[in-house]
From TrEMBL:
Protein name, entry field: SdpI/YhfL protein family
Species for this entry: Priestia koreensis
Residues passing through the membrane, by range: 6-24, 58-79, 85-103
Keywords: Membrane, Transmembrane, Transmembrane helix
InterPro entries attached to this UniProt entry: SdpI/YhfL
Pfam families, per database record: SdpI (PF13630)
Lineage summary: Bacteria, Bacillati, Bacillota, Bacilli, Bacillales
Highest rank taxon of the organism: Bacteria
Length: 113
């Protein structure tokens, strides 16, 4: 039970950590090691800076939201800890993919200006 609770909170804690890092110390230059790297984000320095800022914002907000949801699920779920962990893992995967979709949509609009 303790192990499953600990694993339930890995994704939101990592997202919050990434959000804090990218909010206060995003990568300044386009590179191949660190940062939100996509063809659109690497197309210009302005796109790069914008995408890093968005990643920080979305990761922090969604990580906090996911943490709150995971706590509620853990406290209120009538199902077994395995079923609860599976639900939290599915939610975590969705929340990990969501910033990519949102950032790419914003970058598409940013590039057209």
């Amino acid at each position: 039970m303790i192990l499953s609770l600990a694993t339930d909170f890995i994704i939101p804690i990592l997202m919050i950590t990434v959000g804090v890092i990218f909010t206060f110390k995003p990568p300044q230059n386009i590179n191949s090691l660190y940062g939100y790297r996509s063809p659109r984000s690497q197309s210009s320095q302005e796109s790069w800076n914008y995408s890093q800022k968005l990643l920080g914002t979305y990761s922090l907000q969604l990580g906090v939201l996911l943490l709150f949801v995971n706590i509620l699920v853990a406290l209120l779920s009538p199902y077994s800890s395995n079923a609860t962990s599976l639900l939290n893992a599915i939610l975590g995967i969705i929340v990990l993919i969501l910033p990519i979709i949102l950032i790419e949509k914003k970058l598409r609009a940013f590039a057209s200006h």
